[in-house]
Design brief:
Number of strands: 10
Largest sheet: 8 strands, mixed
Number of helices: 10
Strand order of the largest sheet: 1-3-5-4-6-7-8-9
Mean pLDDT: 88
Low-confidence stretches: 173-181
Radius of gyration: 19 Å
């Protein structure tokens, strides 16, 4: 098992550099020869760092993960490995500017820009159809996840500890009047009417940062839009602490089983990535 940082070029011209490539089946062998990989050079210009966890066997789906505010992609490893094992999917977790190794400052606009670029890379360069892309967003990551889920016909959408909007989160801390001093960002509630894929919502009842009532609001919006949605509220889960298996993964697997999705997870493909994306871009 391993996770590997990759660097997706933001410059469109770099995306045509799809040769030479390496498949997910050969990745471990290739990376054992680090000097050979480095000799092929790196993508130039600004790149989006992502954690890449290829499935050890052919997998039909790619899961895109957008993490919470208190994480970076390295802190997602345990959860991503657990999901990968249970769902048998390839995983790509996107970093945000200003987090981890990604230099810059995070804004709602930069996160949405990068999630669109990553989605384009997965669907147009890796050639994974949107219907085989699972999108998972946790907390602040529910913003980019809901954005993609409302714009594209993806396989399914997973939202953990999601909010209706950032202003709604602020309301719980500063009150109904001062909430308007917080710029409105990631208005997930308004996007739910455009989501057409199955949705799994999970939110801890003990969450004191984002109330589970916001998940209930999202659930109502999805129901009104006739979406296929399930809301799971574990009694002992809070915003940051929960049992991966009991509170989240097992109910999620059950959600997929009831829809016959688990049978299709392993009917897969080898993901082929340009070798250049495994080399960290040199600083200018």
């Amino acid at each position: 098992k391993f996770g590997q940082l990759i660097y997706i070029p933001r410059d469109y011209r770099e995306w045509v550099l799809t040769q030479p490539c390496v498949s997910s089946a050969r990745l471990a062998d290739l990376l054992a020869h680090k000097k050979e990989v480095e000799a092929l050079g790196a993508c130039t210009g600004k790149c989006i760092p992502c954690l890449y966890l290829p499935c050890s066997e052919p997998a039909a789906k790619i899961l895109l993960y957008f993490h919470g505010n208190a994480e970076d992609v390295n802190l997602t490893l345990e959860l991503m490995y657990t999901l990968q094992e249970e769902l048998r999917v390839h995983v790509i977790a996107m970093e945000y500017e200003g987090y981890g190794v990604y230099e810059g400052s995070a804004t709602a606009e930069s996160i949405l820009r990068d999630c669109e670029l990553l989605f384009y890379y997965v669907t147009d360069v890796i050639k994974c159809p949107p219907s085989d892309v699972i999108v998972f967003g946790r907390s602040i990551g529910s913003g980019p996840a809901s954005h993609l889920g409302s714009r594209y016909h993806i396989h399914s959408l997973i939202l953990m500890s999601a909010f209706t909007s950032l202003r709604a989160v602020a309301r719980g801390f500063v009150g109904p009047l001062l909430q308007y001093t917080v710029a409105e960002r990631f208005v997930n509630k308004s996007l739910m009417k455009d989501v057409r894929c199955p949705v799994f919502l999970v939110h801890g009842k003990k969450d004191r940062l984002v109330s589970f009532k916001q998940a209930e609001e999202l659930h109502r919006e999805l129901k009104e839009a006739k979406a296929d949605v399930v809301l799971h509220i574990p009694e002992e889960m809070d915003h940051n602490s929960f049992d991966f298996k009991v509170d989240f993964v097992s109910p999620l697997v059950e959600f997929y089983k009831r829809r016959g999705f688990m049978d299709e997870m392993g009917e897969g493909r080898e993901v082929a990535l340009p070798i250049k994306v495994f080399n960290k871009p040199a600083k200018k």
